[in-house]
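tl;dr need the bound structure. longer version: we got a ligand (zinc ion) that a collaborator sent over and nobodys looked at where it sits. i said id run it. heres the input, straight from their email, havent touched it
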Amino acid sequence: MLVDPDVLSSYEHDWTGRFSGRSSCVVRPADTAQVAAVVRACAAVGTPLVTQGGNTGLVGGGVPSGGEVVLSLRRLTDLGEVDRAAGQLSAGAGVTLADLQRHVRAAGVEFGVDLAARDSATVGGMAATNAGGIRVLRYGSMRAQVLGAEAVLADGSVVSRMGGLTKDGTGYDLVQLLIGSEGTLGVVTALRLKVVPLLRSSCVALLALESTQAAVDLLPVLRERLPQLAAAELFYELGVSLVRRHAGLPAPFDAHVPAYLLLECLDRSDPSEALLDLVGEAQGLLDARVATDAASVRALWAYREAHTEAINAEGVPVKLDVSVPTATLPGLVEQLPEVVAAVSPAARTVLFGHVNEGNLHVNVLDAGEEHDAVTEAVLQAVASRGGSISSEHGVGRAKPAWLHLSRSQTELAAMRAVKGALDPQGILNPGVIFA
Ligand code: MLT
Ligand code: ZN
């Protein structure tokens, strides 16, 4: 248990610098029984708790808003052996994605979710937010990898479903209910996770396209012709200029590029021929670079993966993670800079995302005092297209006020009923998801 204000500080601020709040103390239990004891003690006196993993979430869901106990799960780092017959393993909530990846790769398999924050993001936090990342088009988001969980409920009781049954029709799926619940329904302490084949042969193509529409038009072709496809990432010149400035990278192409599309294929044998054939036929292609060896593959990925850090190096952005029906993505990309400029004329709107899911990361720099106005304008534009105000980062403390744009009153009432049933005192992550 930590109470020294200097030590508490790193637990009280989120990575983006947007969210912070005082905590009464930080507790760092070592196993599920200790987590349960902490939750029981808090429940007995009605003290609220905020569960925290790697503290690199982007919507403020893991930091206190004022006075809560921070329950850090970073010491829950047990990693079980890969069960080869089932294609599964057990992992403590505090295991980082990078440690999980090293562990399963040593056993000759792979984990299906990957994202740039792999060195800090913990699997518990990734499950709690239903994290997505760069491989969703191939393996689905975190929800699709979770076959079981152990969790402490709001009264300190423990639910353990770690048997890893891939078929189980015995009523409500409590494990899946916890995925994406952002710590508001229970504290996930361990997970039973699926593994996927380890595909060592990679080919990456960075395409310079004439428009976002050209990237969207390529999607059905990619799906039909490229079963090896493992990532399709969209970004733009403004983001590349920030990445170049902060990471010191050369320009990827000589000329101005209206839309960048990074494609990665992964397979057991070299997938470059299939990818190159497709690139050669792509409509709206202005230029392309292709990489097959590990160093060049990493160099092309850097233009995409360095976006988040490069943006934060410029200042604290209004960070909005949204998704829209894919066909409407080009219209949204075109409209957003004007939508933002109408409420914050000096702002810079950096866009990037995961094109297959219609998932756009809208990062607005230099919004001054207009954070809420920018959020409102962007999320209204998304909602008017039938989109979601949160695609893969969660609602956190950032977006409860806008949840009604994506959820009907009936849904919100049902969600509140679930919350009330499982956490009647409202001590688990108060202020997250619901205002
Ligand atoms: C990403 O796709 O890089 C992450 O979602 C992080 C971000 O949106 O900044
Ligand atoms: Zn993302």
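gonna send this back to them w/ a short note. The mean pLDDT is 97.
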